[in-house]
Amino acid sequence: MDLLSKSQLTDLCTEINSTIASLNLEEKKSRFGELQTESMEENFWKDTNRARIILSEMDAIKAEIDEAAKIKEEIDLFIEMFDGSKEEEQNELIPLYETLLSRFNQFQVLKFLSGKYDPADVILSIHAGQGGTEANDWAQMLMRMYIRYAERMGWKADIIHMVQGTEAGISTATLNIQGRYAFGKLKREAGTHRLIRLSPFNAQNLRQTSFAGVEVIPVIEDDDTDIVIKSEDLDIKAVRAGGAGGQHVNKTSSAIQLTHIPTGITVHSSERRDQSQNRKTALTILKAKLWQLEEEKRDNEMKDIKGEHKIAGWGNQIRNYVLHPYKLVKDLRTGIETSNAEKVLDGDLEAFVEAQVRLQ
């Protein structure tokens, strides 16, 4: 940036005020008060899971309110400094302005996360595509990438269910990622991810293309009355966890396979050694999948009305990860790309995630 003008500051101030207004902070303050009252009840810690959810939501709301106030305070102070400076001194304020702008851009992402379940935790599943060991290894690389991303965001990631590949990698894995706006930020990671590299499993070290599919659904709380699951519609089986084992996989028969008879949807949970806990987790996943099914029906109806038609599934390729003959990760929807593929695979996804959020 060569010059800094008053019009730039005025525009930024207007944008900051618009973003803060869009976040309905007064409603969130009211919600914070309700949660705070509940947290002081005598039996608050009787349901530890519910207590965790409430405290997490309180922390997130407080952080959002505090950050909005801080940014507003800083832009007002910056404008005061700018107005009080001489013309030849104003360009010295550019680094401070760029820092403020960067901070605001990160905060502004919240403006695009207004969907009903955007603040929710997320169930993220990874499925290896065709290609045997190569695809299984790629699926495991993706699983590690999302776990590392969650760590970078200060979120918690647990492996709910995992089936390991015959020789290496994983056939499928399901993660429960807990964090404010986890679903809103990650929902557009759903689709097909394509890897191009020299094969580490081929004696000729040939170039290989592998695919893996990612599915993303929100964690829907028990008190959400929009989705009702009847007990007579469930077929519940206790099964042994599949795959070759490992520290994350429960090898006992407490693992649960749950089938929703009307839709044929089957889910698994093998995270816990307690069968009742695995059943509860499986029901949470099923609830989210039924919500996803209804969303897809609505989307398809809208596409039919608009005359749009797009085949879902493996053709829905969203991002390429090229490790040979050059290094490039490119998102095919936003055009965001980087040559630092190793950093992306180590969880540095925020540039891609933020661009997707702003795309909606």
Automatic annotation (TrEMBL):
GO CC field: cytoplasm
Molecular function terms from GO: translation release factor activity, codon specific
Cellular location(s): Cytoplasm
Domain Prokaryotic-type class I peptide chain release factors, chain residue ranges per copy: 240-256
Keyword tags: Cytoplasm, Methylation, Protein biosynthesis
Modified residues (N5-methylglutamine): 247
InterPro entries reported for this sequence: PCRF, Pep_chain_release_fac_I, Pep_chain_release_fac_I_sf, PrfB
Post-translational modification: Methylated by PrmC. Methylation increases the termination efficiency of RF2.
Pfam assignment, any one: PCRF
Superkingdom of this protein's organism: Bacteria
Function of the molecule: Peptide chain release factor 2 directs the termination of translation in response to the peptide chain termination codons UGA and UAA.
PANTHER family linked to this entry: CLASS I PEPTIDE CHAIN RELEASE FACTOR (PTHR43116:SF3), PEPTIDE CHAIN RELEASE FACTOR 2 (PTHR43116)
Family the entry assigns: Belongs to the prokaryotic/mitochondrial release factor family.
The protein, known as: Peptide chain release factor 2
Annotated source species: candidate division WS6 bacterium GW2011_GWF2_39_15
Top-level taxonomy: Bacteria, Candidatus Dojkabacteria
